[in-house]
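Section: Multi-chain targets

For targets with more than one molecule, the full set of components is provided together so that the structure can be written out for the assembly as a whole rather than chain by chain. Components appear in the order listed by the source. The example entry contains two components.
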Amino acid sequence: FSDPASNLGLEDIIRKALMGNMEEKQE
Amino acid sequence: NRMHLVCPMNTSPYVDPQKSGHSIWEEFSMSFTPAVREVVEFAKRIPGFKDLSQHDQVSLLKAGTFEVLVVRFTSLFDVKERTVTFLSGRKYSVDALRSLGAGDLLNSMFDFTEKLRALNLGEEEISLFTAVVLVSADRSGLENVNSVEALQETLIRALRSLITKNHPNEIAIFTKLLLKLPDLRSLNNMHSEQLLAFKVQP
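Its structure, encoded as tokens over all components, is:
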């Protein structure tokens, strides 16, 4: 548990929230 | 065996001792997730943020979300009454939270809130400052530091211009505001330590 952001599952929440934006960028 | 959650991103600092560590953790996660989503939505609206690589967008948000939330939620900290409002809307005194295990981080949050409020910034200024907090080229793990740095400089210039326009006789406000950035880093580090301690024995 060396990464507090990973501890919180923060990256997963952020990636999901960004997803719409990311899909748009990949097009 | 920790029985209290002193972070205001919970509905209450009191934890049902019958609940498992996993369900406490799940509830905590459910509580702060909407706030994190709001930070992501805010980031998407920063001009130029969406042009950064996906990797760097995630890295900046991972590193800076707590700091953004600190700035956004200063309203939860009543400096005069020395209370903290939790998500349920209920207020808890500093003394009560201290007796539940809150330590230096709580005092530092009040200090930060007091100093930021003293600058009397408007909504637009706080919003632009928050963008500067998020787009920091010295966060670890960035793959294109130059792009982040260029955006950061643009945002800092815009912030300086806005502060100069709104407070023509108080240019020191801009300097004071930039000096809040290391304060936020310090709060972030203290918060990370608390999180690590919590997760080890959920």
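The CA atoms of residues 4 and 10 of chain A lie 9 Å apart.
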